[in-house]
Amino acid sequence: MSVNRSKSQPRYRRLADALQRAISEARYAVGATLPGELELMSRYRVSRHTVREALRCLAELGLISRNRGVGTVVTARDPSNAHVQQLASPAGWMRYSEDSRLEVIGNEALRVDAVLARRLDCRRGAPWRRVTALRRVTADRALIGWSDIYLPEAYAGVVGAMGRRAGRVYELIEARFGARVARVEVQVTAGLFDAERAKALAVPVNSASLCVTRRYRDASGQVLLLSQTHHPAERFTYAFELLRGGDGAAWLAA
Amino acid sequence: MSVNRSKSQPRYRRLADALQRAISEARYAVGATLPGELELMSRYRVSRHTVREALRCLAELGLISRNRGVGTVVTARDPSNAHVQQLASPAGWMRYSEDSRLEVIGNEALRVDAVLARRLDCRRGAPWRRVTALRRVTADRALIGWSDIYLPEAYAGVVGAMGRRAGRVYELIEARFGARVARVEVQVTAGLFDAERAKALAVPVNSASLCVTRRYRDASGQVLLLSQTHHPAERFTYAFELLRGGDGAAWLAA
DNA sequence: TTGACCGACATGTCCGGACATCCTAGCATG
DNA sequence: CATGCTAGGATGTCCGGACATGTCGGTCAA
Fold this sequence. Notes:
The structure is a homodimer.
Chain A: H1 11-24, H2 37-44, H3 48-60, E1 64-67, E2 71-74, E3 83-87, E4 100-111, H4 114-120, E5 127-137, E6 143-152, H5 169-177, E7 181-192, H6 195-201, E8 208-218, E9 223-232, E10 236-244, E11 251-253
Parallel strand pairs in A: 3-10
Antiparallel strand pairs in A: 1-2, 4-5, 5-6, 6-9, 7-8, 8-9
The structure holds a DNA duplex.
C-alpha cells in the first residue's frame, strides 16, 4: 500500500539534498557561511536559478538563513527541536522556564482599531499599549520566541519591569495595580514567520512557528492582558505528561 | 519607538497583496480558479517570474493551491482557522471532537529501525504496525489532520475498527487486549507540510502545520501506541481555558 | 456506454542576463 | 584610536526564453 514515487528528482532538489547532507555531516558547521551562489553555480554546474531554488528549500527547512551582503549562514544542523518547554502543570501554559528571559524591543501606545478591539474584547479607540519582546534562553543566548503583548494603557507602568525582574507580566499587573486574573484563554496553532520576525529571530522567512495566544481576563470578563508568542519550531517544543489519577492543582481546566 | 519600514514594496509583493485582497473580497470564491500565469502577466504587466513569486507568497499563506494542468485554486478566503478544538479538560489533548472521524488510508507492517526504535522506546527490529489516517470533520468534509499511528504488531487487530467505530485508538487497544494506559507524553510543535501530506490534505506544500505527538505508556513504561498528527494551521486550532480554583479531574499533569 | 488517446492548457523546471539593495571590511582622516 | 566612507561581495528583484510534466476535456472506436 505504499505510494509510488517518482524516481527522478529535479535538479534543485538534488542540490538541496547534497547541501543538506554536507550540513548534517558538519562539513559546514552551524554559524558557518556556505559558499556564495556564484561559487555553488560553478561548483555544481547549474544555473543561479537552480542554486537559489535549492537554497530556498534549505531555508524552508530551517537549516540556513540568507541575507543580502552577508551570505548564507547555517542555522541548524538538522531540523530537530532545541528547547523543550516542559509543562509540569496546566499553569505551565502561562509561563516559561526559569532559564529564559524576556527582552523588550518595542513599546508603543495605540488606539485599538476594529480588528484589534475584537481580539481584546474592548471598545474601539480605547488606549492600549503594545509591547514587542524577544524571549531568549539565558544559557546559550538562543532566541526562542517573539511576543506581541497588549495591555491597557492604565497598566503601562509595568512595562519598565518586564524582562528586568523575575515574574510573569500578569503577575506584575496584579502586584502593581491590584487587578486579579480569574481566567486565561489559550489558543495554540501554527504559522509562518514573516520577514521582520524572521530577521529578529535569525530564522528563515516563512519557516514554521508555533503560535500561542493568551488572553487574561478578570472576574468580570474584562481583558487585562493579551500576549501572542511565535516560537521557531526548530527551537521550541511544548511537552507535558498526562497521568491517570485524581488530585488538585492550583490551575485547572474549566 | 516604532521600527522604520521601507515604503516601497517589491512588485511581486504588491501583486500578492492585490490578489489577496481580491480573494478576501470574494472576487474569487474558495474553490474558484484564479486566472493563469500568462493572463496575470498581461493583466498586471509583469513578468511571469513576478507572477510566480506573488503566487508563491499566497500559496505560503495557505490561500491558494497550485497544480500543473489544473491551475491555481483558492483554498481559503483568509488565513483564519476554521476548526477550533475546544479542550474541556487535559484529557482533551488525547481526543478530538465528536464531529470528526478518522479515515484510514494506509496500513503496513514494519520492523523498527534505530531511529524509530528510539521514538517508540523499543528494541530494534521489533514488529510494529504503521497506520496512516486522515481526520475529517463530518459536517463539511473538511480535512483537519494527517496522522501517523504506530502500534505493536500484537495489537494490529484494532486497525479494522479504527474510524469505523467511535472510540479512541488507545481505548480500542485497552478494550480488546486488556492493556492499560497509565501515562501519555504529549509534544506540541509546528512544521511544514511536505508534498505527500499537502496533497492529501489539499493544502500548499510547505504551509504551516501544528504537530502533536502522543506516546501512550502502560504502568511498566512500555509504549503501547504512538500517534503523530499534523494539522493544517489554517483549519485547526487548540483552544482551552485555565481557571483559578481547585478540584479534581480524571486526568492531570504529573 | 465505456475506455483510450490526443490536444490544449496550466504549472514546474532550468537557463541566462541585468540591475538593485544591503552588508562588511578596509582604508583614510581627524 | 575612533569615525566615516567606499568598494567589493553577497543576496534580492525582475526580465525573457525554452522545454518538461501533468491534468482534463473532448473525440473516436469498440
